[in-house]
Write a sequence for this structure.
């Protein structure tokens, strides 16, 4: 984990028990190991939280003109419509949950977090969402500490130009911009 570390190539020296010295080159091009580095015009949303609630879920709704809802039941695709994917789905506390957008349709996307399972509240979860582009960290939002027992955190409106923080905990009925019909991509 290189959270909080600068992006780039770094060299370090490691000494093992027998006294041998080895140089290691580490590329910190992305804060989530194993994922492809972002290209220009792409965004990545990284959700982390505390031990409770156990399962927070990332959701991304494409614009109403292309009604596709990316979440754990419809993970999407990075190489075809919807050009967005749930890359990592964590169900046992802490995260990360990761959604990447590789191409944008015209209009406004919506990124939100749902308290899916476990005890506690979104307001007490310590949840945060970091947004990355090709140059690194773009924005960080921390879940508001108000909102009672509401189970949705509406975090961002998103366009090809960037993210606009909304950062409100809301009841379920007010988050989804349209009914999830299961369509949207040919």
């Amino acid at each position: 984990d290189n959270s909080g570390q600068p992006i780039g190539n770094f060299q370090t020296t490691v000494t093992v028990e027998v006294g041998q010295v080895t140089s290691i080159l580490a590329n910190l091009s992305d804060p989530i190991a194993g994922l492809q580095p972002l290209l220009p015009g792409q965004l990545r949303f990284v959700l982390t939280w505390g031990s409770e609630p156990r399962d927070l879920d990332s959701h991304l709704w494409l614009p109403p003109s292309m009604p596709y809802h990316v979440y754990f039941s419809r993970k999407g695709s990075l190489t075809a419509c919807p050009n967005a994917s749930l890359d990592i789905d964590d169900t046992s506390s802490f995260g990360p949950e990761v959604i990447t957008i590789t191409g944008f349709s015209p209009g406004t996307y919506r990124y939100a977090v749902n308290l899916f399972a476990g005890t506690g509240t979104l307001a007490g979860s310590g949840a945060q969402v970091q947004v990355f582009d090709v140059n690194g960290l773009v924005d960080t939002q921390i879940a508001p500490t108000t909102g009672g027992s509401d189970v949705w955190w509406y975090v961002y409106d998103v366009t090809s130009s960037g993210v606009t923080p909304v950062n409100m905990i809301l009841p379920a009925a007010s988050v989804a911009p349209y009914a999830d019909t299961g369509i949207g991509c040919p």
Notes: The longest strand covers residues 109-117.
